[in-house]
Design brief:
heterodimer; A: 6-stranded antiparallel sheet; 6-stranded mixed sheet; B: 553 residues; mainly beta; 6-stranded antiparallel sheet; 47 strands; 1% helix; globular
């Protein structure tokens, strides 16, 4: 699934109960039906003002939003007859869908006839959850301006790591924090404290991102389950000091001369993935990062004269100082190619909206600072992409709302299909003649999920993943995820291939990572094989299975 | 629920009030010193003002802009810190810790610049001590017009400060964000009088919505009009609680239009709306997506002045479209944002043949910055390197731009910038959309001026605490961002120093205390002119002037 495709699927999954907004320039259809009701807060049964209430009928492209008044009342008018889902949205309240059977579940649609007034479509909203506590340093003193974040496990670029999910909060002068706006689910809590990477006054103390109850190791961290409206207090985190090492060296430009101005960035890899510090490059090209905790890092130099070049090095800190790092700049490598279209010529997009970009599926984190954003082709559909050397997977898409065109295949100049295999881009070199094929052709899968009693299940997720475990890779296109619509029917378009198909109840908003081999192996237990060609239309009915554990 | 809006907050800090100009280059010194390790030592101790106890883990920074040195040390459990192998130079030293007021060494009043340390090779300076007072605390709750808590509002204690010749509101210390129950807590506030402000932008969905209500920036006790606001007095280490405010809704505007690049093609990306008001605390609203046909809609703009901005991707050749717009609650349609290709500014660096030997082109970088400090300068191209044959090419956006020397070129400064025979050093170059400028001459010199001296009182005793202002006799040059206006505080030996002002006729005066809001204000300078001494400065001259303190200003 290309990057744009997976983003769309994620968006569709997250707003299954609410239809997509129509383009503003086409006037929405109107009618004479009315939906009205009242919104109150669960706590204290108070009326809630300024709540967004949305009535959507996907089939009719109708999507109307109004706000509740001071009494919590709303009225949505001028609706054409149809089948509607109605839902609410207000900051710090859990999103509700009318007729949902569980928090964040899909709602029950209502049928509305012309001229009908449907009253009492009411909502009782739960507040989102909060976690509060104090962060202290190794002396028990409050740690002000520490950043506390809710975290979850994700599987990215072949590694399992912690990622922020939800808004963080910083501690005040007493070390106190309040992380709020949490939707019901499971969370780890992490605290990070300002790093002294520039410190050269002798103090080597650094603080690893510390997970409640006070460990740097994600497998020892405690996970919380928060329900709607819940506040969990006393989640106190003692920061863990570690003795850091000093990493120093020199940065050379592409001519081998020391870089006179710029900075070196350190990104930590592995479970504590993230920005680990930076240091200024001195006039003689040298730099020093102090107090770096043990771990694996990728160093990257930024500076003038580095716009078409890059200098990176992977290092491992295990206690002792490292003083001979050399970051030698190399020119960005180039991919030349052209885009061809397999579809109606009158529907070609403007060339300025097409994007070609590259995924580098190496264990190193994605290049920070250099924002490919992709290349835009010229009017003759040729393009030139500059990127770092190494294993490269090319992807393309049309910027903006989903349109007709999707990536079909990527071929080398010799006609070899490298869509998922990618190729090796040489250092300081180029690859020419790449063909990016875009198409409007697609397949269609529709189906229904049934429970043991034979009743259709609407509240579930359907996953299609490759039968061949070799294809469970980063950026794979052999992946499809969908949720059933208001009629309990799901729709999917996927790349042609051989899949396993499975459906299960996913009660959490944040699902598992679908390219985590551990998850796919669990799903394979109950999945059924399913194959589809590039333009087939197939029906796929599934039995609901047990969800994976993660 | 994942947030539908993305907030960006830009906070511009005025770190050192005595240098609103770009940092002056180092006076001529041996270039080898730039790479050899230093040999000086700086030691001191940080304690808390109320208890006298050591402030373990206080952060101490030494900063010498002229030689681009910037180092940090952490105080140990006895509050002591030490910097070793310090290079010779003129340093400001700052200490901070958590909720204490951050102070510069030698600072005796809130918001006063500190006193620099003049460090020579091999010197050891001890007792660089700091006594940090507890900062003040302001806490309270924000509610909306229904009495419900207002989350995610930015709250700050602000005061007016002179920024590049204009009075702007600047937050003191960090700002705070209200949580889901509307609570906020500001800490580490230096004593003073402040306007307590609350700013909230862009509720609702990303980019476009039917919602026409929002909240204008509001000042305690609850007015959008700063003239009616009450200033809040924070004493040393004082805690003020229950500073609650109810924000009142205001009608917001929706702006629609199209964004195209210089070829007329729809731009892909986002339109940003940047508020342009009195305050240095800018809260950007959610960006608006540009549709495939180039159309966009920005909603939720509270009444006021904004700059709409869209940029194409593409590095230094990227194009930017921007437009200044003022809204007052009504919608505005039909806006056209048209981007320009960045203009190219090419030319040569020239130097006196006698100095040419000492010049190393690889260390030179030139950049463009607005001549008018008012313009919200959101990113131009980074400074460009000068080629070995002394030619250069800069990329710039339309406007009146000055050329400045950005590179680590110790000992060099711009003597003049000329375009077709006209001196445009201070006036700047007129860059017109899509027009390139060629044949710029940038003359550099390594004969950099320096004016220094001691200040005595009427009894002839040397003074250790004062402020010196050097300003040109020509009133036309009393402009914001002027190269000719500088001020200085005494170092540890009571000596002031001002470097790299152009040759010419000047006034100089020593005063007991200068408010940072006044020192480059033409009205203030007019008032002290009669009491100032005069001097002339020639090319590359190093001048020593001793002054008598001027009483009452």
């Amino acid at each position: 699934m290309n990057l744009i495709g997976s983003a769309l699927i994620a968006a569709a999954a997250a707003s299954a109960a609410l239809a997509q907004a129509p383009a503003r320039d086409t006037p929405a259809p109107t009618g004479t039906a009315v939906i009205r009701g009242r919104v109150i807060a669960a706590a204290g049964q108070r009326p809630l003002a300024t709540v967004e209430v949305r009535a959507a009928a996907g089939a009719l492209h109708v999507n109307k939003v109004v706000l509740t008044d001071a009494n919590g009342r709303y009225e949505i008018v001028d609706l054409p007859a149809g089948r509607y889902t109605v839902g609410t949205n207000k900051e710090n309240y859990v999103r509700a869908s009318y007729g949902e059977r569980r928090p964040l579940g899909p709602g029950t649609p209502i049928d509305v006839a012309n001229g009908q007034v449907v009253p009492r479509i009411d909502f009782v909203l739960q507040r989102t959850a909060a976690i509060t506590g104090r962060v202290v340093d190794e002396f028990g003193d409050p740690a002000p301006n520490a950043m506390v974040m809710p975290m979850r496990y994700v599987y990215v670029n072949g590694e399992r790591r912690m990622q922020q999910t939800g808004n963080g909060a910083s501690t005040n002068d007493l070390g106190e924090y309040r992380v709020y706006g949490l939707i019901p689910g499971r969370y780890f809590v992490s605290a990070t404290f300002g790093r002294n990477f520039a410190d050269d006054g002798g103090d080597r103390t650094a603080y690893l991102p510390t997970l409640y109850p006070g460990t740097g190791n994600p497998s020892e961290a405690q996970r919380f389950t928060v329900g709607p409206g819940q506040t969990i207090a006393g989640v106190n985190i003692p920061l863990l000091p570690v003795v850091g090492a000093r990493i120093s060296g020199v940065v050379l430009d592409i001519d081998g001369k020391p870089l006179t101005m710029g900075s070196v960035n350190a990104m930590s890899r592995g479970a504590n993935f993230g920005n680990a510090g930076y240091a200024q490059i001195k006039a003689d090209g040298t730099f020093a990062l102090n107090a770096m905790p043990p771990g694996d890092y990728t160093l990257r130099a930024n500076g003038s004269g580095m716009t078409e070049a890059y200098a990176i090095a992977d290092i491992t800190v295990s206690g002792g100082d490292i003083s001979d790092v050399q970051l030698s700049a190399v020119r960005l490598s180039t991919i030349h190619g052209r885009i061809v279209f397999d579809g109606p010529r009158e529907r070609l997009p403007a060339s300025s909206l097409l994007r070609v970009n590259v995924i580098h599926p190496s264990p190193s984190p994605p290049m920070v600072g250099y924002m490919p954003g992709g290349a835009t082709p010229k009017d003759d559909w040729t393009f030139e992409l500059k990127t770092t050397a190494g294993r490269s997977i090319v992807r393309a898409g049309v910027a903006g709302p989903p349109g007709d065109w999707r990536l079909d295949r990527i071929l080398t100049s010799d006609g070899v299909d490298i869509t998922d295999a990618g190729f090796d881009l040489p250092v300081n070199g180029s690859v020419d003649g790449v063909v990016v094929m875009m198409t409007t052709r697609h397949n269609e899968i529709t189906g229904t999920v049934f429970d043991d009693g034979g009743a259709p299940v609407r509240d579930c997720v359907v996953v299609l993943f490759a039968q061949d475990p070799q294809r469970w890779t980063v950026g794979t296109r052999l992946l499809g995820v969908a949720r059933p619509d208001v009629d309990s029917v799901f729709h999917l378009r996927v790349a042609a291939g051989d899949y396993f198909a499975v459906a299960y109840e996913q009660l959490e908003m944040a699902g598992p990572s679908f390219n985590d081999p551990d998850i796919l192996q669990q799903l394979r237990e109950h999945a059924v094989p399913f194959s589809i060609g590039p333009t087939d239309t197939k029906k796929l009915d599934l039995r609901l299975s047990a969800p994976p554990v993660y | 629920m994942v947030r539908a809006c993305a907030f960006l907050v830009g906070l511009v800090f005025v770190a050192s009030l005595s240098s609103a100009q770009p940092p002056p280059p180092m006076p001529p010194r041996d270039n080898a010193q730039a790479t050899a390790p230093g040999t000086a030592v700086i030691r001191g101790r940080v304690v808390a003002a109320d208890t006298g106890q050591a402030l373990r883990k206080a952060q101490v920074r030494i900063f010498a802009p002229e030689i681009r040195e910037n180092r940090l040390a952490t105080a140990d459990s006895d509050g002591k810190f030490e910097f070793k192998e310090v290079k010779a130079g003129r340093y400001t030293v700052t200490a901070s810790k958590g909720s204490y007021v951050a102070l510069q060494y030698g600072q005796t009043r809130p918001f006063e610049p500190g006193k620099p340390l003049e460090i020579l090779a091999g010197q050891t300076i001890e007792k660089v001590d700091f006594v940090l007072p507890h900062g003040g605390i302001i806490s309270g709750r924000l509610v909306d017009e229904f009495g419900d808590p207002l989350p995610d509002a930015m709250v700050a204690a602000q005061r007016y400060q002179n920024f590049n010749g204009q009075k702007r509101l600047v937050p003191a210390g960090r700002s705070a964000q209200t949580n889901d129950i509307g609570e906020f807590r500001l800490f580490g506030i230096p004593p003073g009088q402040y306007y307590l402000s609350a700013t909230l932008r862009g509720m609702g969905m990303m980019g476009d919505s039917d919602d026409r209500t929002g909240y204008a920036p509001t000042y305690f006790p609850g007015t959008p009009n700063i003239a009616e606001a009450q200033r809040v007095t924070v004493g040393l280490g004082q805690t003020l609680t229950d500073m609650n405010m109810a924000l009142l809704p205001t009608k917001t505007s929706r702006i629609t239009g199209t964004a195209v690049d210089s070829q007329g093609r729809p731009m892909a990306g986002m339109v940003m709306s940047v508020p342009r008001g009195d305050s240095m605390m800018m809260m950007f609203g959610p960006p608006a997506q540009i549709k495939p046909d180039g159309s966009f809609a920005v909603s939720g703009l509270t009444p006021g002045r904004y700059m709409l901005q869209a940029r194409t991707m593409g590095g230094p050749d990227g194009e930017v479209a921007y437009l200044d717009i003022t809204v007052n609650g009504d919608d505005v349609n039909g806006i056209k944002l048209v981007a320009n290709r960045p203009s190219s500014v090419t030319g040569r660096v020239v130097v006196d043949p006698a100095a040419a030997q000492a010049l190393r082109p690889s260390t030179l970088r030139l950049g463009l910055q607005p001549a008018e400090p008012d313009m919200m300068f959101i990113g131009g191209a980074p400074p460009a390197a000068v080629n070995d044959d002394l030619s250069f090419e800069l990329k710039g956006n339309p406007g009146t731009m000055r050329v400045f020397l950005a590179g680590p070129a110790p000992g060099w400064t711009i003597r003049a910038v000329r375009y077709r025979g006209t001196d445009v050093t201070d006036a700047g170059l007129e860059i017109r959309p899509s027009e390139n400028i060629t044949d710029i001459e940038v003359e550099l010199t390594n004969r950099v001026t320096e004016v220094s001296g001691l200040v005595t009182n009427p009894k002839g005793e040397a003074l250790k605490d004062y402020s010196v202002i050097v300003f040109p006799q020509d009133r036309e040059k009393w402009t914001p961002n002027s190269r000719y206006l500088k001020s200085s505080r005494p170092d540890q030996d009571g000596r002031f120093k001002v470097s790299a002002i152009p040759p010419g006729e000047y006034y100089v005066i020593a005063l007991d205390y200068v408010d940072s809001n006044d020192w480059n204000d033409p009205q203030f300078l007019d008032g002290i002119r009669a009491k100032a001494s005069r001097f002339s400065l020639s090319e590359g001259e190093t001048k020593s002037i001793d002054l008598r303190i001027t009483s009452g200003s």
